[in-house]
Amino acid sequence: MARTASMDFLANKIAPFGEKVAAQRHLKALREGVLMAMPLVLVGSIFTLIGSFPIEAWTTWLNKHGELDVLLNTMANNTFGLISLATAFGIAYSLAKSYDTDGPSAGIIAIGAFLLVTPPLKTDDGFGIPYGLMGGKGLFTAIVVAMITAEIYRQFIQRDFTIKMPKGVPDAVGRSFAALIPGAVIIILFAAVMKVLQVTGVGSLNNLLALIIGTPLGLIGGTLGGTFVAVLLNSVFWFCGVNGGQVVGSVMNPIWLQQADANRLALQAGQDLPNIITAPFMDLFVYIGGGGATIGLALCLMFLSRSREYKTLGRVSGIPALFNINTPILFVFPTVLNPIMFVPFVLTPIVNAVVTYLSMATGLVPYTTGVALPWTTPPIIGGFLATGSWQGAVLQAVLVVISFLIYLPFFKAADAAHVKAEAAGVQASESADEVAELKEVAEHSEERHEHRDEAEGTAAPQDASPSPAEPSNRTTHRQ
Questions:
Q1: Which of 99, 250, 271, 366 would be 266's cystine partner, CB 3.0–4.6 Å?
Q2: Strand-strand pairing, 121-123 and 126-128
Q3: Is 228 helix (H, G, I), strand (E, B) or coil?
Q4: pLDDT tens by residue, 258-288
Q5: Nearest Cα to 81, choosing from 33, 28, 137, 32?
């Protein structure tokens, strides 16, 4: 009864709440805006990986041949290092589009406003744009500026407070003129904010947001306790059938990306890496095998299934699970709203987070270098590339074993129950076939009786009128 009540609560309360949060307009824009910047992050990570590959002979060769290591760092700075700039455009674009207004215009204005509030770099030759604040350090500023920009922009557009052009003017020109008034208001607003912050001694919007937002969220996203809460919420939402990454990741991914970028910059500068918990830490170690860290369950399905259905599912889901794709396991096995799988589904990623954190904090495994690999990178390979060491690969292998051991007893129970259900289904099917055969035999027998009765009914009148010879025979017989 208690288990049923718990499942009802998860299905009827938690799942709808998670769906509403995931569909919330501003969180959706935040998620899509960060994703819009991911091509730059991944390309820049490739350059970082090449320039800092953990073989001394390679890095020495790069340095001696035209300072290729410097070139690779510059290429990384102009890709990964522009994540905040791209995010500002992406969030404003997505949020404006959600209001059925012009996304590109809102995105362009957001870029201008973001650059305006970013403190310029002063040199002897004049002013410049600081790379450091275009990357992870400026991410919170980019998010806030983009949100405010899109909201102001759509208010002007929806209220028709714009410059309207004649009907014959091309649509692109009309949109450009429509953006003039909201664009001017937005730029003036952020210029006033910048001036107030300078006069009050705060310095910049970056400093203010770092104090108000960055510090608290950094404590959540950069500590083991905060990560524990994030992983727990992610797993609970996934268990309810809601994409936990869309709910929890909308808030936490910018923090983890910012910390990954800080590690990348420290690596380029030859300094100690500052952050244990980063985006690769979460994607490649905590959620190994996908949401719920189900790679262990995939191995159970592949090699230990006695149920015919589970054997088939193991063959189908095994290979995708190696690339952290576990949709068949979530919804076909299923783990979603499956009471027997709640404990391992929630427990496994938490254990992975604790083991990985302690391994890195004690120096057994190096920190992730800031290389943002695709979340589909297979185990062993991902661990080596993310940390630049064989220890990272070994740690991933250990996490696979841990996942397998945690899921094993629960899988055995589920498999045994499914085998019984299949056996009962076969017996029921056989019984149904036997009943059908008996019915068919009975029907054929009844048809034969009917045909015989009809034949006898046809012959009866002939027997009632005997031939003339028949009476004398009977008489003779009686004598």
A1: 271
A2: antiparallel
A3: helix
A4: 899 999 889 888 899 999 999 999 999 999 9
A5: 137
Whether pTM exceeds 0.70: yes
Return d(Cα 270, Cα 284) in angstroms, integer.
Answer: 24
Contact at 8 Å (CB) between 156 and 106?
Answer: no
User: Per the structure block, which two tokens stand in for 280?
Assistant: 């690769």
Beta bridge partners of 121: 128
Mean pLDDT of 77-82: 85
For the chain, domain boundaries: 22-221, 241-449
CB 32 within 8 A of CB 90: yes
In the beta sheet, which residues pair with residue 127? 122
| pLDDT average, residue stretch 450-472 | 51
User: What is the DSSP-derived secondary structure letter of residue 121?
Assistant: E
- Provide the 8-state DSSP code for 79: T
Question: From its phi and psi, is residue 129 left (phi > 0), alpha (psi between -120 and 50) or beta?
Answer: beta
Q: Is residue 474 pLDDT above 50, yes or no?
A: no
What percent of the chain is helix, strand and coil (3-state, nearest 5)? 75, 0, 25
- Encoded amino acid at 289, one letter: G
